[in-house]
Design goal:
alpha+beta, Thiol Ester Dehydrase, Chain A, globular
Length: 329
């Protein structure tokens, strides 16, 4: 390629990045359209240059950042792709699965994490916990309003890592809340040095009923990213994951939750329902996992299933959580 053409292309990209970075920052409401992935990608890349990689210790709380998208509908093709990816069946009533809402809404999380007012570069941030709550059935043809809000609390850990929360919600056109998702992200300290282990770490042996085996190919991170719009490079390619300290791409925690939800199907068609997961270690791709169900408790009209995801080879716990739902129609 001619040098002058290359310079022109780079100039256009830089100019576009500066315009997007310094352009309007307070777009808090959109009618009928989601934020563009290209905008968030450019801002995220600009953030690597313009923002510090470590949160300033003088910052006591996060800025108020919120975005709302109204009058949007479930993308039928994306929903079909999601069901195929997590090996789940479509319900006869075309109800939106519990773990699909966040697939639509995750671009709002990306919008906030890449926002110029987010005080630190969030590239390489890792999911620690997530809770999804569906309060009633939601037909896939229902018009919805989605919102995401960054919570002000900052939790600093001894390791130097920082935890922040984001809350997503979805309402029907009549104002009825149908879904809420709470996500805890870890902003990893960039120069954190891992302590050398002087002895093997022993984990209690996970026991329970085997609900299924998950064979995750090396490209599953890219497939889920393409589906959801999650542009975090730790999920994409070996070279991009290595930039943030991982030997190989890691699986999306939300994808692992969706796989688990699809296999815990005995209660997943009842409402209201809630699923919680805490992630104990990254799942390097490719990987083979097993889903174990520890308990199946019934309290009144509520069923609670506790579960653990383990590596099939070493039986190390990857994630644990529970799914609760109403067993009375």
């Amino acid at each position: 390629m001619d040098v002058s053409v290359l310079v022109l292309i780079l100039s256009v990209l830089v100019t576009a990045g500066v315009v997007l970075w310094y352009g309007p920052k307070d777009v808090t409401h959109r009618e009928g359209s989601w934020p563009r992935v290209g905008l968030m990608l450019v801002r995220a890349l600009m953030g690597l240059v313009m923002k510090p990689r470590r949160l300033n210790p003088d910052i006591k709380e996060m800025p108020h950042l919120k975005i709302c998208v109204s009058n949007v509908f479930i993308d039928a093709a994306r929903l079909k792709g999601f069901l195929k990816l997590v090996d789940a069946e479509q319900s006869e009533q075309d109800d939106v699965p519990l773990m699909y809402f966040i697939v639509e809404a995750i671009c709002l999380d990306m919008f906030i994490l890449s926002h110029p007012r987010f005080p630190v570069s969030a590239m390489g941030a890792v999911l620690l916990k997530h809770t999804s709550e569906a309060f009633q059935k939601c037909d896939s043809s229902t018009g919805l309003t989605f919102a995401c809000e960054l919570q002000p609390e900052i939790r600093r850990r001894e390791t130097g890592n920082v935890e922040v929360d984001m809350v997503n919600k979805a309402w029907r056109e009549d104002g009825i809340l149908v879904w809420k998702g709470t996500t805890t992200m870890v902003l990893i300290k960039p120069d954190r040095k891992r302590k050398r282990r002087t002895h093997a770490v022993l984990y209690p042996k996970a026991v329970g009923e085997v609900m299924g085996t998950m064979q995750l190919n090396a490209d599953v991170g890219r497939l889920y990213s393409r589906l959801s719009g999650d542009i975090n490079p730790i999920h994409l390619w070996p070279w991009s994951a290595k930039l943030f300290g991982f030997r190989r791409p890691i699986a999306h925690g939300l994808f692992l939750m969706a796989l688990s939800h699809a296999k815990l199907h005995s209660t997943s068609d009842r409402y209201p329902q809630m699923m919680f997961s805490e992630f104990l270690r990254p799942t390097l791709l490719p990987a083979n996992l097993q889903l174990l169900k520890q308990t199946h408790d019934v309290h009144g009209s509520t069923i609670k299933q506790s579960f653990t995801l383990i590596t099939q080879e070493m039986s190390k716990p990857v994630a644990l959580g529970h799914l609760t739902s109403n067993h009375i129609s």
